[in-house]
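Aim 2, interim progress. The first record below pairs a target sequence with its structure tokens.
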Amino acid sequence: MMHASRTGHSGFSESTEEIKPLTEEEKKEQLAKIQERLKQKKAERIEQEKKELVQKEKLRRKQGKELVAVKEQHEMNEMKREAERKKREKLEEKKAKERVREQIARDKADRAAKFAKTAVPPPSIPAAASKPTEVQKKEYTQTKLQIRLTDGSTLTNSFEAKEPLAAVRVYIEVNRKDSKAPFSLMTPFPRKVFTDEDMTKPLHQLGLVPSAVLTLTKPQL
């Protein structure tokens, strides 16, 4: 084969030329060519591997960006859902307070209407009566209460004298801003802590008419 490549003969029978062995110079030249081809193939393989690494890195970065985008979108959706939930809770709380206020107003109106129907006009005193007029104790129909909260702030409101103390408690629970903690009601002077049984008693019976100061204190066990 070496002879065919050197002489161009396709059949050995056609040539009677003696095949000369390669000289040292020719051997070195052939070896150098082989080494050069191997070196070139190695360089091509290294270049191909570099290209593949670059492509893999580009793909990795692309996938990383897509993953970050998906994560950010998920977090944004969660934030939107949380904001909507808080908005619904505030709206529901506002509606609940409005319902309580409306119920209190209806109860007051009903009690006022019942009181107006059952009220008996005072007897008239004849003009010719010569006896001195007796001073009658005034009956108050309303009372003004000042309520001191736990943080030092106050609430002030007017109530019907015949409303139960429970109505005052409901008013405090709806309008207070200091805390949501449970509480009892008391008068500082004279000091008196109201019990659960007092909640059904009218304000005038508890000595809270025509005005009084109430203070929030820790629940009484």
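The second target in this work package is listed in the same format:
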Amino acid sequence: MATKRLLVLGGNGYVGQNICHVALQSTSNYLVRGLSRSGPPSTTPNHITPSMDKVEWIKGDIFDKSAREDALDGVDVVISCIGAFGSNEFMQRICGDATIEAIASAKAKGVQKFGFVSSAQVYEGSAGLSFPPSVPMHGYFQGKYRAEQELSKVFPDGYVIARPGFIYGPRTTPMGVLPLQMIGSPVSFLGTELGPLSSLIQSVPFVGKECSSMVPVESLGRAMVESVGSEEKRGIILEPEDIRKF
């Protein structure tokens, strides 16, 4: 099988580290490169630490066109995990503009597939997208929405969009490992596996969607890596229930 080069944008973050790990463990024969402002991660969960040593880490700003283009040299597939919380203006820029600019550079460089980690709240008619500009998280959801729209337009037959809610699993911090699965797993069970009770929870605007959209970080990694590795010439949208199957 021919070797492919995968570039993970925001690769040293929680989700990005797991995507790098899954890609290196997959049978798709990936060489993995990560681009982030700070280079390699400072902390990682023990079970994926060996994989991080196999990633080609590039330190650069996603908004620096020359840094983006250097990172994209020879790349076949891109996955963007870029996202952050803050003011609405900040989130519009990080959650939207950063990936939008990367999409344009990737297209110009001849990238074949482009994956994007979006949000479960990004769909037509969602409560998240109806937030007015004054409400916290408006910029987060609108930024992700704009990036989705641009990706489907520029890579109509080569995009993969994942729409997870809360992403859970072991997450390292300077204070130690946060076992996010202790929160995410039971809430996900409550929101998806209890029949009428789950249906009742899901009917609550915004909160119901969040409770039914939680996914394990390992499943998200596998879903993204396997989907961008598909030979199918079509766009793919992975809803939470699709992600949990991986």
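The CA atoms of residues 21 and 50 lie 9 Å apart. This observation will shape the mutagenesis plan for the next reporting period.
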